[in-house]
Amino acid sequence: DVQLVESGGGSVQAGGSLRLSCIASSFARCSYDMAWWREAPGKEREFVSRIDNFGVTNYADSVKDRFTISRHNAKNTMYLQMNSLKPEDTAMYYCKTAYFGSDCPQNGRDYWGQGTQVTVS
């Protein structure tokens, strides 16, 4: 089964930093994009950042210039470096992996981790 495991969440003061990690599954015949999403109390889950199989990144406007997404393919790991954290960044952060490829058994399927809590005060 495909499993994603997030870690690195915690509680920090405003202006502080956290580094989130996501360990994903990889498949020889699949390419994959990875992304971070977050869900705050009373709000819908929202997109935070994405990194594709080429390493191209994009960010939600709310986190641009503060967060940096990266991936280490040999470790099947994605990171989110979060700097200058604000109280409004408080949320459960979820790792998402999207697999694709014509010969990929998981083609077109998205997988989510269990989430890691980030609290900024």
Written description of the protein model:
- A hairpin with a 6-residue loop joins strand 4 and strand 5 (46-51).
- It is elongated and about 45 Å long.
- It is an all-beta fold.
- Helix content is 0%, strand content 50%.
- The strands form 2 sheets. Strands 2, 4, 5, 6, 9, 10 and 11 form a 7-stranded mixed sheet that branches.
Q: Features of this protein?
A:
single chain; 121 residues; mainly beta; seven-stranded mixed beta sheet; four-stranded antiparallel beta sheet; 11 strands; 0% helix
Helical percentage: under 10%
Structural class label: mainly beta
Task: Count the DSSP helices.
Answer: 0
Average pLDDT value? 94
Q: Please summarize the sheet with the most strands.
A: 7 strands, mixed
Q: Compute the number of strand runs.
A: 11
What letter string, H or E per element, gives the SSE order?
Answer: EEEEEEEEEEE
Q: Per DSSP, what share of the residues sits in E-state strands of 2 or more residues?
A: over 45%
Shape: elongated
Low-confidence stretches: none
| Gap from first CA to last CA | 37 Å
Rg estimate, integer Å: 14 Å
Topology:
Blueprint: E1 5-7, E2 10-12, E3 18-23, E4 31-39, E5 46-51, E6 57-59, E7 67-72, E8 77-82, E9 91-100, E10 110-112, E11 116-120
Parallel strand pairs: 2-11
Antiparallel strand pairs: 1-3, 3-8, 4-5, 4-9, 5-6, 7-8, 9-10, 9-11
Give a short overview.
The protein has 121 residues and is mainly β. It has strands at residues 5-7, 10-12, 18-23, 31-39, 46-51, 57-59, 67-72, 77-82, 91-100, 110-112, 116-120. A hairpin with a 5-residue loop joins strand 5 and strand 6 (57-59).
